[in-house]
Amino acid sequence: MLQVLMPAFVAGILVLSTHVILGRQVLKRGIIFIDLAIAQVAALGTVLVHMSHEMEHMPLANLWMPLCFALAAAGLIAWLEKHMAQELEAMIGCFYVLAAVSAMLILSHDPHGGELLKQVLSGQILWVDWSTLILPAVASILVLALVLWRPQLLLGRGFYLLFALMITLSVELVGVYLVFSSLILPALAINRCESKWALAWAYLVGAVGYLLGLWLSASYDLPAGAAIVVTLALSALAFRLTYSKLINGLKP
Q1: At 164, which helix (H) or strand (E)?
Q2: d(CA 187, CA 201)
Q3: Which residue ranges traverse the bilayer (predicted)?
């Protein structure tokens, strides 16, 4: 069991390594659904690769095609942020819906379309192996180093470039639902935490969520992605409640 669960857990930690930081920025910008939208657009690129036999056999097509779609969506959202700021969240929601129904329409006559959609949305984290983690690990290290070197990148348009890159890699690893949960739930857990250890708490919340979800999945034969989403939510809620009680208890 450990041979299956360890790569899956490391995949979760890699996703969290960048998504906790990006998720905090998403909350600050007030663009909560950008992760769902860009993840779904990247998933649309994956669907198109699947439907094209010629493209399916191209080297790394499952990476560069979704990445192109994600970068295009991120670039358009960056433009909308400047020119249509008041309607930005609504436009992002429209992107998500259009990308989702487009994938459904493209796969409507594919006998295996339903299974592919389920795979893209829920992911197949238990099928991750060590070789699959090399590229995400390198990308995560480079992005974290870049953010530490130039943290102002998260405040400008560079945020969208980094966001699109990491979302694309994460969707391939864990699926759309876990991408959204990994971005938002740990960030929500520490949203009112003013401690200098806030980021460390967020990583702990995420790691506990992944660990418990994988254990539940293996122990009770549950879908891993769905189980982890639930345990991430419970972990985030437990931290928020505990932190709130602690802060209220310290007030005179």
Answers
A1: helix 158-174
A2: 10
A3: 6-23, 30-51, 63-81, 88-107, 127-149, 161-185, 197-217, 224-243
* Exposure b/e, 134-146, CB count within 10 A at least 16 = b: eebbebbeebeee
Q: What is the DSSP string of 108-145?
A: TT-TTHHHHHHHHHH--GGG--GGGGHHHHHHHHHHHH
Burial readout 210-247 (b: 16 or more C-beta within 10 A, e: otherwise): bbbbbebbbeeeebbbbbbbbbbbbbbeebbeebeeee
Tokens for 98, please give them: 């259009």
CA distance 225 to 76: 29
pLDDT in tens, the chain (252 residues): 778 899 999 999 999 999 999 999 999 888 878 878 898 998 888 888 887 777 766 777 778 889 999 999 989 988 888 888 888 888 888 888 999 899 889 888 777 777 777 778 788 899 899 999 999 999 999 999 999 999 888 887 788 889 999 999 999 889 889 999 999 999 999 998 888 889 999 999 999 999 999 999 999 999 999 999 999 999 999 999 988 777 655 544
Burial of 87 (0-12, 13-18, 19+ CB in 10 A): exposed
Q: Which amino acid is at 243?
A: Y
Phi-psi domain of 60 (left: phi exceeds 0; alpha: psi -120 through 50; beta: other): left
- Tokens read off for 115: 């299974």
Give the integer Cα–Cα distance in Å for 19 and 181.
9
